[in-house]
Specification:
about 110 residues; mainly beta; Jelly Rolls; 5-stranded antiparallel beta sheet; 4-stranded antiparallel beta sheet
């Protein structure tokens, strides 16, 4: 599930929301992006990270739940250990749209 080139997204099928495991190697990150129509919830399962929501950075440790409202820019930066997040988008978004959102570039 881990890759040195890029964090890995593992879809969890047959769910009402879009649910994925996000697996990061040390120092990997996700650039700022937006999910226009879906709130995103993250549950930190393993590791420590920093999430930036609308320019404000906060720490996220195992057991933390972080909510990002629809239409709000956010980004992740991993620390020095592997990081595993459970990501849930509500209402449901397609896997393609969610992946495209993380590819957006913000200045």
């Amino acid at each position: 599930m881990f890759s040195a080139e890029k964090y890995c997204r593992v879809p969890i099928e047959n769910a009402r929301g879009l649910i994925r495991l996000l697996c990061f190697e040390p120092e990997q990150r996700v650039a700022r992006h937006i999910h226009p129509k879906s709130d995103e919830f993250f549950f930190v399962m393993e590791g420590k990270a920093r999430i930036t929501i609308e320019g404000e950075e906060q720490a996220a440790e195992p057991g933390s739940i972080v909510r990002v409202p629809a239409g709000v820019t956010h980004a992740w930066a991993n620390g020095t250990q592997r990081l595993v997040l459970l990501s849930v988008l509500i209402p449901t978004s397609s896997y393609v749209l969610a992946d495209e959102a993380t590819e957006q570039k913000f200045v």
